[in-house]
Amino acid sequence: MSDTMSQEIAAAPDSIKAFDERLVQVSDNLPKRLKQCADYVANNKDRIAVSTVAEMAEGAGVQPSAFMRFCQILGFSGFSEMQRLFRDSFVGGWPDYSTRLHHLRETASGSPSALLAEFVDAGRVSLEGLLQTVDAQLLEQAVQQLAAARMIHIVGMRRSFPVASYIAYAFEKMAVPAMLHSAVGKLESHHAIREGDVMLAITFSPYSAETLDLVEQVAVRGIPVVAITDKSVSPLHKFGALTLTVSEVDFGAFRSLSATLCLAIALSVAVGTMRQDD
């Protein structure tokens, strides 16, 4: 560990919000193995309370000793202290669904009904975690910013496109001025983004280069950006985006949009309601 990194180590975070802030602070300057730990933790915070250090290290693709070193860089004495923070935060309400998901994976026959059960359970975990990952104050700020916009420009590519297109549909039905940027036919519409507009960007790891490029273009022009993404260390943070974080539990290599669409519905309706009130 470098002297510079050692000097930056402070007391252990005492809340999930403080944990997220510390994770953002240290992530960019970590060496490769520790960066893997940061990325895995940022995208799987729901697993910290119910996993062992060996399981977390395996998920991050590193040795347990490297994961322990990562915990110490965050300010904890070790993994147990970091885990205690998350267990205390979810006391009385932590859903032990990881055991059920493991059991389903072991017993599933691969039939459509078995797969349906897998994805229903993964979706349930994602939805129950949504209230923990989305900061209520940031959500309120995002709604106010979008409701005050002259025009809302929506961008989401690949897996994010269903979310972006749903929000565009909902805004159209509520008479909220909005434009969907889809890059169909390689047509670019960034010249349509003007002062007084707001960009709403949706992207998840691995992040869409087209989405990041468009966000960067508007951010340097001073256009506000609201983002829906999946990590507290998402690259959208460096553009000053007001970020709403969603964690989706995956089954196998497939990740649903259960929590993301729930947030999209709530955000859209809140914006439409606020515009009508105004």
TrEMBL record:
Superkingdom, natural source: Bacteria
Classification via CDD domains: SIS_RpiR
Listed GO biological process terms: carbohydrate derivative metabolic process
Swiss-Prot/TrEMBL keywords: DNA-binding, Transcription, Transcription regulation
Domain SIS: 142-278
GO molecular function: carbohydrate derivative binding; DNA binding; DNA-binding transcription factor activity
Domain HTH rpiR-type: 17-93
Protein name as catalogued: RpiR family transcriptional regulator
High-level lineage: Bacteria, Pseudomonadati, Pseudomonadota, Alphaproteobacteria, Hyphomicrobiales
